[in-house]
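## Example record

The block below lists the input lines for one assembly entry, exactly as stored, with component labels intact.
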Amino acid sequence: MKKKLKGRLKKIFEDIKKNRKINKIPNFWKSLAHNPDNLERTWNNLKEIMKKGALDPVTKELIYVAVSITNHCDYCIRSHTAAAKKKGATDQMIKEMIDVVGLANQNNKFVAGYQVEVDKIYK
Amino acid sequence: MKKKLKGRLKKIFEDIKKNRKINKIPNFWKSLAHNPDNLERTWNNLKEIMKKGALDPVTKELIYVAVSITNHCDYCIRSHTAAAKKKGATDQMIKEMIDVVGLANQNNKFVAGYQVEVDKIYK
Amino acid sequence: MKKKLKGRLKKIFEDIKKNRKINKIPNFWKSLAHNPDNLERTWNNLKEIMKKGALDPVTKELIYVAVSITNHCDYCIRSHTAAAKKKGATDQMIKEMIDVVGLANQNNKFVAGYQVEVDKIYK
Amino acid sequence: MKKKLKGRLKKIFEDIKKNRKINKIPNFWKSLAHNPDNLERTWNNLKEIMKKGALDPVTKELIYVAVSITNHCDYCIRSHTAAAKKKGATDQMIKEMIDVVGLANQNNKFVAGYQVEVDKIYK
Amino acid sequence: MKKKLKGRLKKIFEDIKKNRKINKIPNFWKSLAHNPDNLERTWNNLKEIMKKGALDPVTKELIYVAVSITNHCDYCIRSHTAAAKKKGATDQMIKEMIDVVGLANQNNKFVAGYQVEVDKIYK
Amino acid sequence: MKKKLKGRLKKIFEDIKKNRKINKIPNFWKSLAHNPDNLERTWNNLKEIMKKGALDPVTKELIYVAVSITNHCDYCIRSHTAAAKKKGATDQMIKEMIDVVGLANQNNKFVAGYQVEVDKIYK
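Predicted structure tokens for the full assembly:
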């Protein structure tokens, strides 16, 4: 690997460690490192998107996990459930999120099964 | 339709109107009415699951919409975005939720594409 | 279009009409006709797979619709619900199928959400 | 865990064992036990939905597995294939179900790829 | 809308028009404009990712459409099929891509249905 | 197993080995062998669909993997990434394909989240 590239990766990895308060780079970021442009894009976007805004970081992590459950992405479910807890999510909050995910997935299919038409007030 | 059944449906429909503060039953619930057992189950579960708990009702609605976006369920996206707003979600909160949904769907696929192994700390 | 190709398409279209007891080719098959190899493959496979075997044709159509609901494919839900009814499925059977589809989609996500490990007896 | 809760869980677990004719609670139900309301809801709904109706229990299990295959839920595929067999599904029935699932998933995508419009007769 | 924001949006819109050789901003980009940070991120990433690299732009568009078909995203299928053609994709190429998408979706489900274990040589 | 069936399976297996230039039948094809009709259909279709046409075999394999990533099918991702490389795909091509898959999955959800209407020019 070229020297310049190594410096670039190192800088991002340091930023990940500092921002996440961890000592070891998770496998996700190591995998992306084979594609430095993608690593840089993905990390910068994630930092920007998951930070406190109108929604607090815990809510954002719970939404992230809800999507990952719907997509059956085991790595994402485990790593972002851990992140949610680190940021303050309680076990009860996680359970309630899973309840909502189950309900929404069920009702999404009822809508398809009965081919429900959109009500005028929702258009 | 038998008298007893009509009474049962009417009772659920009144409960939906009262609970949701609406005058007209949305098409979703009308469709389920062809299957009264399912209607009753689904309404009771939804009332129970979406009420205030460790998570507030707005957060629950946002999670519901996030799942519906991931599943491309147009009816569900529209009706529950409306519900989220009615319960207090701002446009900014909805935008940030969509940002997270996009990011999570992208990263879920990076994990699959690179076949990232689960880190020990997440097991 | 070349003469030979036209004859080939015509033969498949006649087979579809006869087999399905219809007078008009549905849009699905018309769309595939732009790709005659695919049309031929798909029609032959469908005829073979959906015919009576250990499972009766109604059960097969219900399974087909269950998959299409899970994938939110409106065309497929509508055309194969119609096919199921034509082959003898009652409204009650269709409702119960939709109930199972909703339940399975919900429980699939509970399994993911709680990261349930496979029991030894299922391995 | 409080005494009352333990009694409630025990009652549901006994019902699961009796109803399923098993001696050991599968991991799925143990996972849900962390959320007793969800456990109770899910078990009661499952018992009600999967029982004999216009569709027999074997057909319902096959539909359940078809959905689980479409969602790539390994636990659900394994546990409900086992359940289907216990209720009388033969290997041949399971193979034919998988054939239909493959075909439907393929054709669902052809419909999307060619953007097939819904025929008037299906509206 | 504040003056500064308007200038920023205008600049991105001009870049989209120039890069895509179009006179009218498509609805996708207009929708994202309600969330200028997301608009900027998404446009910059798309420009970077879809440009010529080891893969040519036509191949990249075909891959984009293949994903969109798998997700049943009508807007994305239509707009990126148009983009693929503009960049040089022939009807025959698009048909063959759809064939592959159908086959892969079918075989993905066979793998799940038969719970195929990963061969050693693929680990 | 009957003699005739064994001969039929053997013939297909020989064809797979020869066509793929391998000495050992992968688990996927072994699993399908329990359903010889399906094995024959699937192998013949795959041979036909994945061969050189308007699209070259490498592009077809990349599209196949892109679909498999979107569906989170680990076996398919691993086996067809290997196939793509065997046919000439470079690591850089695979990385760029994964970039496109991530982007498309993200944008598919933005379209759903903002309920973007199809532009006239795409109809």
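Chain F has six helices and no strands. Residues 50 and 56 of chain F are 9 Å apart (CA to CA).
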